[in-house]
Amino acid sequence: MTCSLSENERDRIALSAQREDEGIRVERGVVYMENPREEPMSESMQDVSERAMNYFREGLNCAECVMRSYMDTHEFGLPQEIIALASGYGGGMGKTKNCCGAINGAMLALGLKKGRRNPFEKETPQERTAELQILYQPFGEMVTEIQNHYGTLLCRELTQPFSDWNSKERRKFCQKLIGFCAAIAAKYAVD
After folding, report:
1. Which residues of 70-90 are buried (b: 16+ CB within 10 A; e: fewer)?
2. Long-range contacts of 123-127 (CB under 8 A, 24+ apart)
3. Which pLDDT tens digit goes with each residue over 138-150?
4. In sequence order, which ranges of 87-124 are alpha helices (DSSP H)?
5. Are 69 and 78 in contact (CB under 8 A)?
6. Could you give the CA distance from residue 113 to residue 29 in angstroms, rounded to a whole number?
7. For the segment 20-54, what is each residue's pLDDT rounded down to a tens digit?
8. For the packed helices 168-189 and 125-150, what is the interaxial angle rounded to 10 degrees?
9. What residue spans define the domains of the chain?
10. What is the CA angle 186-190-191, rounded to 5?
């Protein structure tokens, strides 16, 4: 029996085969990158990445690891207790497996460097809104880079291949993801 495929179906199958050759697979609409291409890290990116991964070994959650490592390597003049802002983001926001805590931690860390210190510094709501349009750019670029690297931002999709949340394999994967997110936050924090 022969089956004729449309041009779109042939293209989709060819793209799927190409993705598998590149270490990319798609399951139920989720893209998994088996061997994402790593770009070289600067010394400061490497430092913050290693610190974040070490904090994970010490029992900090994903968001706390990223934010804490960033706080260690930069002077913000803020109290150490500010880390409490990251505590609820672990496990994909309160262990609901929504937006990955490491990505949220990267957003918080980048906010320490690029965020507004006084949103009311601008006089009018229009000026404040215009300021945000500029401010959002590095945050959006960072999130896009993370999403392009991993194929998703959702904890449940990132960890879906691991049936046991407490497994060593899942923890190793998350540790690498935490290190990557910490390094990317450091990359986008550069002026």
Report:
1. bbebeeeeeeeeebebbeebb
2. none
3. 999 999 999 999 9
4. 90-93, 101-114
5. no
6. 35
7. 444 544 444 444 444 445 567 788 889 999 999 99
8. 140
9. 42-189
10. 160
Are the CB atoms for 102 and 178 separated by under 8 Å?
Answer: yes
Token duo for residue 85: 């802002």
User: CA 95 → CA 87, 91, 106, distances in Å?
Assistant: 11, 4, 17
79 contact partners, CB below 8 Å, separation of at least 6 = none
| DSSP designation for 97 | -
Query: Is 63:87 a contact under the CB 8 Å cutoff?
Result: yes
Q: How far apart are CA 41 and CA 186, in angstroms?
A: 10
The structure tokens listed for 53 are: 């991964």
Q: Which amino acid, 176?
A: K
DSSP at 92: H
Is pTM beyond 0.70? Reply is yes
Tokens for 28, please give them: 């139920």
CA dist 191 and 177 (Å) reads 24
Do 98 and 154 contact (CB within 8 A), yes or no? yes
Say which amino acid occupies 70: Y
CA distance 153 to 104: 10
Structure tokens at 22: 């590149």
141 CA to centre of own chain: 11
